[in-house]
Design goal:
Helix content is 37%, strand content 20%. It has 382 residues and is of the alpha/beta class. Strand 9, helix 8 and strand 10 form a beta-alpha-beta unit. Helix 1 packs across helix 10, helix 3 packs across helix 4 and helix 5 crosses helix 8. It starts with 6 loop residues before the first strand and ends with a strand.
Length: 382
């Protein structure tokens, strides 16, 4: 268990206006988000969330300076340089990992990127997204608590595959086997059949029926009737699966597992953070399914407050930016209003709306909650 050196309850949850911060002592925080182009809606949602955060802080000394990245690395660099010239040393953003490409040119600025990718980022980037290592550590906690012995890991052959592989190593999660699959629906079922040894188990059933038919067993008609109600015979060598997938692709995987006679009632179905995707509630045949995530109650309260204030639904990423404003503000105050890289180097744990964050070695990890979807409800496990 991680030793907590210091727990900071974020200003967003408890903070009253801090006395002694003069109006002229402006705390300037940059914000790099897409405000034009196809991702403009995400950027606007983040700006609104940061405004909510500032309203909660209620201190005129803090100032957010937003700039448009257009989701392009060149534009992101230009905007970051403009913020640097304005005296900004800490920037929330950019949103997408692809926008980080040239930001190592600005060594004097620390970027709290909203990406959840942590590998091969420039040294001045702190990835603040809910990274794969944080999620796998939470899953490992669940596995150990339930004495699960043989877990297989299924990951799609997509661009985040290498990120997952590094996270598996960093989290030290114990796995029985790891498989990579092509998410193409026309190929998926055949791959799942191979992973679950479906053909062999199917043949086992046929062989057993044939054996009983040739036997002199007085109850063979009853036995054969029972076997005819089965699809396969024989167990698989794993007791749980982690499926590193999302949305319809995740549902395709669980459907293929059900087709191969692998049931979530008999084997643990575990996946990654699903942001409480309500479409999962209707997938009753794939329940229960487990996943790590942020604090659901706080997330729901944030969405209600956001909707009441702006008459719109927030983007998921904006919830993260809401916490980051308070985090930066608090750490600067703790550093006697000196804005520098040191505020992120010291090992610290703090509690925000999302849950507990840990800053260590210039990185942010999340200590997440764990949930399951069962009987059309999201239920908290821990």
């Amino acid at each position: 268990m991680i030793k907590i050196i210091k727990i900071i309850l974020l200003v967003l949850t408890l903070l009253t206006p801090v006395q002694g911060v003069l109006a002229e002592e402006k705390i300037r925080i940059g914000l790099l988000v897409p405000l034009s182009g196809k991702n403009a809606e995400i950027g606007q949602s983040i700006i609104r969330a940061t405004q909510l955060a500032i309203n909660k802080i209620n201190n005129s000394s803090i100032e957010i300076l937003p700039k448009d990245t257009k989701s392009k690395p060149e534009t992101t660099l230009k905007a970051a340089k403009e913020l640097s010239q304005a005296g900004v040393k800490i920037i929330i953003g950019p949103v997408f990992n692809s926008s980080l490409e040239f930001l190592d040119e600005l060594e004097n600025i620390t970027f709290l990127s909203l990406t959840n990718k942590v590998n091969n980022n420039p040294k001045n980037i702190i990835s603040a997204g809910i990274n794969a290592s944080s999620q796998l550590r939470t899953i490992q906690k669940f596995i150990e608590a339930n004495q699960i012995k043989k877990t297989i890991f299924l990951m799609p052959d997509l661009n985040y595959k290498n990120e997952i592989k590094v996270a598996i190593s960093n989290s030290k999660i114990k796995l029985f086997k790891t498989y990579t699959y092509d998410p193409d629906p026309t190929k998926l079922t055949k791959q799942i059949e191979k992973i679950t040894n479906y053909s062999k188990r199917k043949q086992n059933l046929k062989d057993e029926i044939a054996r009983i038919e040739k036997s002199d067993d007085a109850n063979k008609d009853i036995l054969i009737d029972r076997l005819n109600k089965k699809d396969t015979l024989g167990d698989v060598r794993f007791d749980s699966l982690i499926i590193a997938d999302f949305d319809e692709s995740l549902k395709s995987v669980t459907t293929s597992l059900l087709y191969t006679n692998i049931s979530p009632k008999e084997k643990y179905f575990i996946t990654l953070n699903q942001w409480f995707d309500e479409s999962l509630l209707n997938e009753t045949s794939s329940q229960p399914i487990y996943f790590p995530s942020i604090n659901k109650n706080n997330y729901e309260r944030f969405k209600v407050e956001y909707s009441k204030t702006f008459n719109q639904e927030p983007n998921q990423i904006s919830f993260l930016s809401f916490d980051l404003v308070g985090l930066v503000y608090y750490l600067i105050l703790q550093n006697n209003l000196v804005v520098d890289k040191k505020i992120f180097i010291k090992k610290t744990m703090f509690k925000g709306k999302i849950g507990i964050f840990e800053i260590k070695d210039n990185k942010i990890n999340h200590i997440l909650n764990f949930y399951k979807v069962d009987n059309k409800k999201f239920k908290k496990i821990f």
